[in-house]
Amino acid sequence: MILTVLKALFYIAFVGFAGALGLDVSRHKEDLKTTSGKDKAKLSGIGFITNFGDTLGIGSFGPIVALFNALKVNISDRIIPGTLNVSCTLPVLFEAILFTSAVEMDPLTLALMIAAAVVGSYLGAGVISRMDERKIQRVMGIALFLAATIMLVTHPYFGLFEMQNDATGFRGIKLIVAIIGNFILGALMSAGVGLYAPCMAMVSLLGMNIKLAFPIMMGSCALLMPAGSVKFIKEGAYDRTAAVLINLFGLLGVAIAYWGVKNADINILTFVIIAVIYYTAYTMYKKSKAPRATETVTTTETTTTKKVDDEAVDSKEVYESK
């Protein structure tokens, strides 16, 4: 019953969002014609690569921005937050649908952990947003490094320590810890801490089969992203060509990566996930050391930019959720 309700929510959100995006794009067809064929090819490749990686737990927002810069894709910085959200909503919903349908886990654990992340993102956003973002990123970077190290030394391949990772759900104190942990991770989205890597580390350390982290983390983001993305569509604060191509080729990337994850040997998959967590720890710690940008609001154009940025702040749980 619980899984049926969750899947229904994912399907409704997928169809509803696809309809909203399609309607907006059909009303502004001229926007698609202004993008060069070369940029369209770049955007298609970016959609496939980043969402393939997203399905493995790497996340897609950071890699998309990096590839925009590396490939010199012409998208205004002002609309990047909206472009990221709108472009990745359908792939993440597809991920949630696939993994929730294919991975057998305790429905109560899944539902409670997803609900905890969603509630945390809304209730915790105000508190977390007032905290020092750099300190949070630094602490989380160190914590993820330690978690990945524990996962590495306890890997069965080395035979140094024995750690059971075969649970399909939690009960008692472990369930309470998992719920509180995902609530905190949901709240930390407001500080730019993605949910994927910390969630994978947490469930592994609690003794759960690592594959079961996928429906939890993807389900959490899938219930957050559509609402925020619809805001950007209504405001027109996104690149329509990028949204169409990244969504379409992102769905293809998800499908191919899902097959690999579903059929992967659990021990090999764990090594991949450990690498992802180390990478996330490094990038998070690096961000905490980056120089702070100065903010000035003086002209009409800057004021407009701030307005759009405020929209992103209002839905930070979406913009920084991955």
Offer a few descriptive terms.
single chain; disordered C terminus; 322 residues
What does this structure look like?
The chain is mainly alpha-helical and 322 residues long. Helices cover 75% and strands 0% of the residues. The protein has 16 helices and no strands. Helix 1 runs parallel beside helix 12 and helix 5 packs across helix 11. The longest helix is centred in the first third of the chain and has 26 residues. The radius of gyration is 19 Å and the shape is globular. The C terminus is likely disordered.
Low-confidence stretches: 294-321
Return the structural class: mainly alpha
Helix content: over 70%
Total DSSP E strands: 0
Span between N and C termini?
A: 28 Å
The portion of residues forming beta strands comes to: under 5%
Total helical segments: 16
Overall, the morphology is globular
Listing every helix as H and every strand as E from the N terminus to the C terminus, the arrangement reads HHHHHHHHHHHHHHHH
> How can the largest sheet be summarized?
none
Mean pLDDT across the residues is 83
Oligomer: single chain
Radius of gyration: 19 Å
